[in-house]
Amino acid sequence: MSTSLLNKDAWHSNMNIRALEKERWLTYYTNQANLPRNYCTGQVKLNCWNCKQPLDKMPAFFCMSCKVIQPPEEGITYFKIMDCDCTFTLDTQKLQKRYLELQRSLHPDNFSQKSVKEQEYSESQSALVNKAYKTLLKPLSRGLYMLELQGMHIEEGTDSGADSAFLMELMEINEALDEAQTPEKANEIGQDTKGKLADLTVQIDAALRKGELQTAKALLAQMKYYANIEEKVKEKLSGFM
């Protein structure tokens, strides 16, 4: 009887944790989608390190008053840095455009004649923009980062605990790719893989919007395997050239 009660209490505890986790993500996702582009999550307004004037725009790469480069803002998300909506299906063309614009203004070569502090800030900002761009560019790293924002720290190489049917399917695809004797056959496998990745993208986006983080995690694990196959297809095709 006592064991039954303990199991029941544990079940309710797990359900409560999942409900809180889902509620927290839904609140975050909704708020991120509705925030103004230059919204700063911090409560304290920052001032320019050089002229001490308030920095109105967040993230502030440069002071609007004295035009001096600023240090990276602590705790700012990659989505804010790249001026993107916090969504799994973001516009990668807009992301690339933002990246090029930032690197043109922040690149260390532009600050070779400036003070040591400005050179250091340039290197830090440029490196941060590079990391943000690379993380958000690919769906897999983007999705894992979105989970990390909710406290789910997952490495890209984490084992998914995939079922045997899924692993068997992956083995068959890899074998077919190894045995492909023509670029047409390899390309056929590549196109099929792209279709699976596109379907997973839709499913992951839906799971994130619903706050179903464990589902999103499992789908991202599947995406990792198909992304690996996509890379193998590219290597196979290059071998035919």
From TrEMBL:
UniProt entry tagged with the keyword Kinase: no
Pfam families in UniProt: HSCB_C
Pathway membership, UniProt: Cofactor biosynthesis; iron-sulfur cluster biosynthesis
InterPro entries assigned to the protein according to its UniProt record, in alphabetical order: DnaJ_domain (IPR001623), HscB (IPR004640), HscB_C_sf (IPR036386), HscB_oligo_C (IPR009073), J_dom_sf (IPR036869)
GO BP, one annotated term: protein complex oligomerization
Molecular functions (GO terms): ATPase activator activity; metal ion binding; protein-folding chaperone binding
Plastid keyword on record: no
A cellular component annotation (GO) from this entry: mitochondrion
Subcellular location: Cytoplasm; Mitochondrion
UniProtKB keywords: Chaperone, Cytoplasm, Metal-binding, Mitochondrion
Main location: cytoplasm
HAMAP family: HscB
Subunit structure: Interacts with ISCU and HSPA9 to form an iron-sulfur transfer complex. Interacts with SDHAF1 (via the first LYR motif); the interaction recruits the iron-sulfur transfer complex composed of HSC20, HSPA9 and ISCU and mediates the incorporation of iron-sulfur clusters into SDHB which also interacts with HSC20. Interacts with the cytoplasmic form of ISCU and with CIA complex member CIAO1 (via LYR motif).
PANTHER family assigned to the protein according to its UniProt record, in alphabetical order: IRON-SULFUR CLUSTER CO-CHAPERONE PROTEIN HSCB
Family: Belongs to the HscB family.
Function recorded in the entry: Acts as a co-chaperone in iron-sulfur cluster assembly in mitochondria. Required for incorporation of iron-sulfur clusters into SDHB, the iron-sulfur protein subunit of succinate dehydrogenase that is involved in complex II of the mitochondrial electron transport chain. Recruited to SDHB by interaction with SDHAF1 which first binds SDHB and then recruits the iron-sulfur transfer complex formed by HSC20, HSPA9 and ISCU through direct binding to HSC20. Plays an essential role in hematopoiesis.
Name listed for the protein in its UniProt record: Iron-sulfur cluster co-chaperone protein HscB
